[in-house]
Design brief:
The structure is a single chain. The radius of gyration is 29 Å and the shape is elongated. By secondary structure, it is mainly beta. It has a 22-stranded antiparallel β-sheet that branches. It is built from three helices and 37 strands. A hairpin with a 6-residue loop joins strand 32 and strand 33. Helices cover 7% and strands 56% of the residues.
Length: 401
C-alpha cells in the first residue's frame, strides 16, 4: 500500500515538473498546444516538441491524439509522431493499426510501426508483418519493406515461393519484388531464363522482376569475354546492369584475359572467386579454399610459372598483379607483369605488406568483394593496395612501382 502511494507521489511530482517547465507553444502547423521545445533552428523554427499530455495534433493523415515527442522538418511538415494508442490508418492498399508514423517532406507515410502481427496485402499475396517492427513505404503508398512474422508463401510469376520467417521482404517502387530469402527451391526468372534457385538463398530482383543476384544450386555454363565459364551455382551469383556476371565462383583451369593466357597446373579444375569489371572482363580472382595454386602465365609469348593465391588485372588489361601469401604475418610476394602494346613483357617482384585478402573475403564475401585489392590511376599505374581492415572496410597503402 505504501509502495503504491509512493509511486503515485513520484508520478504526480514528475507530471507537476513537466507542467512547470512547459508552456503554450504554437506549432509550425499553427496549432497551439501545451509542451516544451526540445530543438529549434537558429532562426527559431521549431524542430522537436515534447507534449505534456495526450494532445490532438494535425498530421498528414488527419487529426489524431498524440503523445510523447513531435518532430518537424525545417519546412514545417510533421516528420514523426506517436499515436496515443494503436490506430487504424489507410496507407496505400492497406488499412493498418500503427503506433507511430514517419512522414516524408511531401507528407506521405514512409515508415509505420506496428505493435502486433499484422496481415499485409502485397502484389504477390497476403503476408503477415512481424509485431514491434516498422513497415517502410514509398511515397505512392506501395510497400518498400517489411519483416515477416512467420514462414510465408507468395506467388511470383505463377510460381509458389516460400520465404523464411523473421526474414525481410523488399519491393521496388513500382510494386515489383526486390528481395526474398528463399525457404525452399523455386523457379524464378533470372538473366539466364527461368531457372530453379536453391533453398536457403537470398534473391535480389530488378524492377522487371528479373533476378540479378541468386544461387542456383547447380552448375551452369555461359560465355564471358570469349571464355566458356562454368558458374558454381552453389555460391552467390551477382549480375551487373548489362546482365553480365559480376561476381561469381567458377571452375576453369585455362583461360585468356586480354594479353594474358593463364593455365592452372592442376589435374582438375580449381574453384575460383571472380570479380568482373562492368564489361564482364575479369578484375580480380582468388583461389577458393585459401589454396596456393601454381599457374603457367604466358604474356606476349613469354612464359613464367608461379605459385599464387590470386591475381588482379588492371582495367586496361595491360598489367597483371599476382600475389603469393607469405607463411608468416601479412607480408606477401607481389608479381607485376606488364604486357605492353609493342609486344614487350616486363615482370617485377616486390615484397609488400599485402593483406591476406581471401582470408578476410571468406568471412565478409558480400562486403569486401565489391572492391579490388588494388587501386589504379587513369594511366593504368597501380597506386595502392589493401594493407589492413578497419571496421570491416579496407585501408590502402601507397604503392610505388
Amino acid at each position: 500500500m505504501r509502495m503504491k502511494k509512493l509511486i503515485s507521489l513520484i508520478t504526480i511530482t514528475i507530471l507537476s515538473a513537466a507542467m512547470l517547465f512547459s508552456a503554450e507553444i504554437t506549432l509550425p502547423t499553427g496549432e497551439k498546444i501545451r509542451g516544451s521545445i526540445i530543438k529549434k533552428t537558429a532562426d527559431g523554427t521549431i524542430l522537436e516538441v515534447r507534449l505534456v499530455h495526450k494532445t490532438d495534433v494535425s498530421t498528414p493523415l488527419g487529426i489524431f491524439p498524440a503523445t510523447g515527442k513531435l518532430v518537424y522538418y525545417p519546412c514545417g511538415v510533421l516528420e514523426s509522431f506517436k499515436f496515443n494508442e494503436p490506430t487504424a490508418v489507410q496507407i496505400g492498399k492497406n488499412k493498418i493499426n500503427i503506433s507511430q508514423a514517419v512522414f516524408s517532406e511531401e507528407g506521405t507515410v514512409i515508415k509505420a510501426e506496428i505493435k502486433e502481427d499484422t496481415p499485409i496485402e502485397t502484389p504477390y499475396g497476403t503476408v503477415t508483418a512481424s509485431q514491434m517492427q516498422n513497415i517502410e513505404f514509398y511515397g505512392n503508398g506501395n510497400i518498400k519493406s517489411l519483416l515477416l512474422s512467420k514462414q510465408s508463401q507468395i506467388t511470383i510469376d505463377s510460381e509458389r515461393v516460400v520465404a523464411f520467417s523473421k526474414s525481410e521482404l523488399k519491393f521496388h517502387e513500382n510494386g515489383k519484388i526486390a528481395y526474398i530469402n528463399l525457404r525452399s527451391p523455386a523457379k524464378l526468372n533470372t538473366v539466364f531464363g527461368k531457372i530453379k534457385c536453391k533453398e536457403k538463398s537470398e534473391v535480389f530482383f530488378d524492377e522487371q522482376e528479373i533476378a540479378y543476384e541468386f544461387s542456383l544450386g547447380t552448375i551452369y555454363k555461359c560465355q564471358i569475354e570469349g571464355n566458356e565459364v562454368i558458374l558454381d551455382g552453389f555460391a552467390p551469383i551477382k549480375m551487373n546492369a548489362n546482365n553480365v556476371p559480376r561476381i561469381f565462383r567458377t571452375y576453369k583451369n585455362e583461360f585468356r584475359i586480354g594479353r594474358f593466357n593463364l593455365k592452372l597446373d592442376a589435374n582438375e579444375d580449381v574453384s575460383m572467386l571472380v570479380r568482373c569489371y562492368d564489361d564482364g572482363s575479369y578484375a580480380f580472382v582468388t583461389f577458393a579454399g585459401d589454396c596456393e595454386t601454381r599457374i603457367s602465365l604466358t604474356v606476349n609469348d613469354s612464359s613464367k610459372k608461379i605459385s599464387v593465391n590470386g591475381f588482379f588485372i588492371t582495367p586496361d588489361k595491360q598489367k597483371l598483379c599476382a600475389w603469393k601469401k607469405a607463411e608468416n604475418s601479412q607480408k606477401s610476394d607481389l608479381y607485376i607483369f606488364n604486357a605492353a602494346q609493342d609486344g614487350t613483357t616486363g615482370c617485377k617482384e616486390y615484397k609488400e605488406r599485402f593483406y591476406d585478402y581471401y582470408q578476410y573475403l571468406r568471412k565478409h564475401y558480400n562486403e569486401i568483394f565489391e572492391q579490388a585489392p588494388f587501386k589504379v590511376n587513369s594511366d593504368g599505374a597501380i597506386t595502392s593496395y589493401v594493407s589492413a581492415f578497419k571496421s570491416s572496410k579496407p585501408s590502402y597503402t601507397d604503392f610505388v612501382e
